[in-house]
Amino acid sequence: MLKVENIETFYGSHQELFGMSLKVKKGQMVTLSGRNGMGKTTTVRSIMGLTPARSGSITFEGQEIRNFPPYRIAQLGLGLAPEGRQIFPTLTVRENLLATAANRKDEKQPWTLQRIYELFPSLAERQQHLGNQLSGGEQQMLAIGRALMTNPRLLILDEATEGLAPLIQADIWRCLENLKESGESILVIDKNVHIFTHIVDHHYIIEKGQLVWSGTSDELQANPSVRHQYLGL
Question: pTM (2 decimals)?
């Protein structure tokens, strides 16, 4: 579904990614992890066209998208819950969700307000509250719900549980487990890979802008030196 091959990305003259590669197959949940400042968000920004890669290849469902503008990439079916959530603070929960709603691919069972409220019941209870009146966990749920309302073919979550309390993190992962069971394809950027290895199909670890390890959950669990060296676990 998504294939990133040997991309090189720069901020001005500073190179951030060095031959970064990963792939996500339909129906899979894949993680990209690593310590802070190693290039995870830059990889996401390159995929979404926000910080275009200067070289390499990014294909989505067989189509080269590396030089596409962000709006075209979104229209193709990549939905992003960005780092920092970036919800609309002066819109209500309901308005945040409706602002991005689209069913461009004519899905037979599209994401609707009702489905989002079933996935995140706390959003239903606070649907008339403004975005800046929500807790951090509720804002993260809203960011995920807003991305789902675009009815994406692939959902990308950047720092899905960053800064959230352990109980809220667990709630987020339960919701992601439900999404995977329903057939969603998901790319998750998160440092807390030890929490959700049981639902992940493949892991990628990045260090200083380069891919340093990839493998299954079983392989990651069986390799404590990798977890300690690159993730501090």
Answer: 0.91
